[in-house]
Write a structure and sequence with these properties.
single chain, mainly alpha, 2 domains, 9 helices, rod-shaped
Length: about 210
């Protein structure tokens, strides 16, 4: 009855201890006949094996649940650490590798989305500054073509950024577009008279970028 009670409560460690005690009781020094000793010894070995398996299963499920809980709470690094530990202890469980790949994929997606958000936050003020610095004819009379051609180049690179579906390439395109805009803004205050002459007849973004030395 005590053994059954421990098994029902899933206290497999105590159950295993009790099974071993019984096996010892039915050992070679026992007064019970050899056939019975062999029967109970084999029976206890079988029960110990089952209890060990269930105890291992309980440890495994707790470990996986711990990783799942960290994943659900968006603690991706903690979840990855737990899943990696679980894989070392249970290398033949395919679901662990699947879970690890999933959390790594989500972590990378979140990282990229965060970078996209940062890029999106930088674009409007830079564009507004460009218009302010180069779009006022009375303030910057020699910047007519710099404004027109610079704006054309900026629109082209930002269109490439906005139309890129792959997040990794989109981040690259966004950072490139921002760098172009910042370099054009750095031309503020320079004598654009000669530069305007260069820009006047240029049509393609590649020609404009070359003329601006970007």
């Amino acid at each position: 009855m005590m053994l059954k009670k421990h098994s029902i409560r899933k206290d497999y460690k105590k159950a295993i201890g009790n099974y071993r005690t019984i096996k010892t009781f039915f050992g070679e020094d026992s007064w019970i006949c050899k056939d019975e000793r062999d029967y109970y010894s084999t029976k206890m070995d079988s029960l110990i094996e089952v209890a060990n398996a269930w105890q291992d299963y309980v440890v495994y499920t707790k470990l996986v649940k711990s990783g799942d809980d960290q994943f659900a709470s968006r603690s991706y690094d903690a979840a990855i650490k737990i899943y990696e530990q679980a894989i070392l202890e249970y290398p033949h469980e395919p679901e662990l590798k699947t879970k690890l790949e999933e959390v790594k994929s989500v972590k990378e997606l979140v990282r990229k989305q965060k970078l996209i958000t940062e890029i999106e936050q930088q674009i409007p003020p830079l564009k507004a500054l460009f218009i302010k610095e180069f779009g006022e004819a009375d303030k910057y009379p020699n910047g007519k073509y710099l404004f027109e051609k610079g704006n054309q180049l900026i629109e082209d690179v930002f269109n490439s950024y906005e139309s890129e579906p792959d997040l990794g390439l989109k981040i690259e395109a966004g950072n490139y577009a921002i760098s172009i805009l910042e370099k054009i803004l750095a031309l503020n205050g320079t004598d654009t008279k000669d530069l305007n002459k260069k820009l006047k007849k240029l049509l393609t973004s590649a020609e404009i970028k070359l003329a601006l030395e970007l």
